[in-house]
Design a protein that fits this description.
One of its GO terms (cellular component) is cytoplasm. Pfam families: MRM3-like_sub_bind (PF22435), SpoU_methylase (PF00588). Keywords: Methyltransferase, Transferase. By secondary structure, the protein is an alpha/beta fold. It has two domains: 102 residues, 60s Ribosomal Protein L30, Chain: A (2-Layer Sandwich), CATH 3.30.1330; 164 residues, SPOUT methyltransferase, trefoil knot domain (Alpha/beta knot, 3-Layer(aba) Sandwich), CATH 3.40.1280.10. It is built from 13 helices and eleven strands. The chain has a seven-stranded parallel beta sheet, sandwiched between helices. Strands 1-4-2-3 form a four-stranded mixed beta sheet. Strand 5, helix 9 and strand 6 form a beta-alpha-beta unit.
Length: 289
């Protein structure tokens, strides 16, 4: 007779024994998780890191289907029992670690006790344009396009701002930072799991596609002829946000339907990308809601 598995031999209603805590910083499992801080490893494994209790909580609340495993050090287990209970209810394994091991696995030197490994959550452009990419109904009315955005903190903050303003999706060009970079994920604080994100887009072709779909493209640019508060934001539109240092190249400015400037009432030379994007998105949200 063939030997039965451990699960088959276990009495009904009992749980599998918990895995031993990870305490060796040189263990293969620790190294494999830490490797997800590198883009090449994320692409190969199809996984990314979610650090900190707030982001892990949002992943479990909104997309438990993509959470592969949660790691908790002693402080995280003590402080965030509710999050670990949510993981258990979702059937997500929780692995105990030492504080040193969690520090090695995380991208930051001061982890907050919890780390999750998740599968990517990006969606197809067609799903966004047909209204199938998120919780809302119908075709999109407010989008944000990132092109040549290189700073992870800026990219994550724009994703978070788009989420807060009720945008329908964030569309990311091929020349922008990887949205699964740990710094982007930390800056977004869980917003990856709230709204659709589309990756790998050719931005000039995207602008043509949006226009064909009846979505106006508004370039956020300090030299724009139109002022933010004089622009019609009631119709469906996409904000196009460019590089932190040099903004949008002339060919993309010309390809957009309108270039819009955020007014500066004081003596500041300009707003940074994330601040400008948030102001524009909230102006749109106010006009549309």
């Amino acid at each position: 007779m063939a030997d039965t598995t451990a699960a088959q031999r276990r009495p009904s209603g009992t749980e599998a024994p918990a895995a031993a805590p990870l305490t060796n910083v040189r263990a293969q499992r620790v190294r494999s998780v830490a490797g997800l801080g590198r883009r090449s490893v994320r692409a190969r494994e199809g996984l990314f890191l979610v650090e900190g209790p707030q982001a892990v909580r949002e992943a479990l609340a909104w997309r438990p289907d993509v959470v592969r495993e949660v790691f908790a050090d002693p402080a995280g287990r003590e402080r965030h029992a509710d999050i670990l209970q949510a993981a258990a209810q979702a059937g997500v394994p929780v692995r105990d670690t030492s504080a040193d091991v969690l520090r090695v696995m995380c991208d930051t030197n001061t982890p907050q006790g919890l780390l999750a490994v998740c599968r990517p959550v990006d969606v197809a452009l067609a799903d966004v344009l047909t209204g199938d990419g998120g919780e809302g109904e119908g075709r999109p009315r407010l989008l944000v396009v990132l092109t040549n955005v290189r700073d992870p903190g800026n990219a994550g903050t724009v994703i978070r701002g788009a989420d807060a303003a009720g945008a329908d999706a964030v569309l990311v060009g091929t020349d922008s930072v990887d949205v699964y970079n740990p710094k982007v994920v930390r800056s977004a604080v869980g917003s990856h799991f709230h709204l659709p994100i589309v990756l790998g887009l050719d931005v000039p072709a995207l602008l043509e596609r949006l226009r064909a779909e009846g979505i106006r493209t508004l370039a956020a640019d300090g030299s724009g002829d139109a002022g933010l508060f004089e622009t019609d934001l009631t119709r469906p539109h996409a904000w196009v946000m460019g590089n932190e240092a040099w903004g949008l190249p002339s060919q993309l400015l010309e390809a957009c339907d309108e270039a819009v400037a955020v007014p500066l009432y004081g003596h500041a030379e300009s707003l940074n990308l994330a601040m400008a994007a948030t102001v524009c998105l909230y102006a749109s949200a106010r006009a549309q809601h």
